[in-house]
Amino acid sequence: MLSRSVFYRSSERKASAMKGFQWAIATLILALAQCAYADGVLTFNITQASVPIFPNEAGDNEFFTFSGPAGSMFGGGTAVCAWCVEGTAFAPGSSLNPNIDILTFDSVQGSLRFGGQNHDVVVLFNSSIGTDFFTFPTNGKSMFTVSLPAFLNPIMGDVDSGQSFNLQIPLGKLVLTFVFVPAKNGSPAFYQFSKGRFALATVPEPGTFGLMASGLAGILGAILRKRDCKSSPTYTLWRR
Question: What is the 3-state secondary structure (H, E, C) of the chain?
Answer without folding.
Answer: CHHHHHHHHHHHHHHHHHHHHHHHHHHHHHHHHHHHCCCCEEEEECCEEEEEECCECCCCCEEEEEEECCEEEEEEECEECHHHECCEEECCCCEECCCEEEECCCEEEEEEEECCEEEEEEEECCEEEECCCEECCCCCCCEEEEEEEEEECCEEEEECCCCEEEEECCCEEEEEEEEEECCECCECCEEEEEEEEEECCCCCCHHHHHHHHHHHHHHHHHHHHHHHCCCCCCCEEECC
